[in-house]
Write a structure and sequence with these properties.
extended, 203 residues
């Protein structure tokens, strides 16, 4: 990747006049070595989402370098938002084309696969470009703050685990949870009675 250059691969668009499409399985197989390789590093905003998407197609992302959302949070968790749009505005002074502007809202909303290819290309290319520029800006600051290990060894693996959990779900022992709930209700009632006895107040 070089600044000012991005590519969009049209896959699975539907509707009239969307233009030629490439087969998704063929595209994924061509990209698999790059996506599953350790080098060069992949910069992705909110890569937990991408991890889940690719897992649905049997691809395990590896070699994640900088996730600007995570980097921003590590550097200053007090910010109200760490979204790509917020980061672009805050760090680059740039207003991005928003998803709502591309796909609409309410009864006029459409799915991204219904967006015509030129507009999808513009939106996706901008997304990739801004992510790349933010990674270049934030990664050195993460390093300077001594947060490399936290990013690499904790946050990135945790995002991957969360993506897997969201995809597969978890098992719950509902009987045990009901038992714990009853225990907590009984304990709370006992504490309320104790407070009322000691203070003469009714809770």
């Amino acid at each position: 990747h070089a600044p000012g250059h991005a590519a969009y691969v049209p896959v699975s668009h539907r509707g009239l006049d969307v233009g030629p499409q490439l087969r998704r399985d063929a595209v994924l197989e061509r990209l698999r070595p790059r996506l599953e390789g350790e080098q060069p590093a992949l910069h992705m905003q909110n890569h937990k989402y991408e991890t889940g998407v690719f897992l649905r197609h049997g691809i395990r992302l590896r070699g994640v370098g900088c996730d600007p959302m995570i980097a921003s949070y590590l550097l200053d968790p007090s910010h109200e938002s760490h979204s790509l749009e917020a980061l672009a505005n805050r760090e680059l002074g740039y207003r991005m084309l928003t998803f709502k502007e591309v796909c609409g809202t309410g009864k006029n909303a459409r799915c991204f696969d219904e967006v015509d290819v030129p507009l999808a290309t513009r939106y996706s290319g901008e997304d990739a470009e801004v992510t790349f520029l933010l990674a270049q800006r934030l990664a050195p600051r993460v390093h300077a703050a001594g947060l490399d290990s936290l990013m690499r060894d904790v946050e990135v693996p945790l995002a991957r685990v969360l993506a897997i959990l969201e995809l597969t779900g978890i098992c719950l022992d509902t009987v045990r949870l009901e038992h714990l709930s009853r225990e907590m209700v009984d304990r709370l009632a006992g504490l309320e009675s104790e407070v009322a006895l000691r203070t003469g107040l009714t809770i």
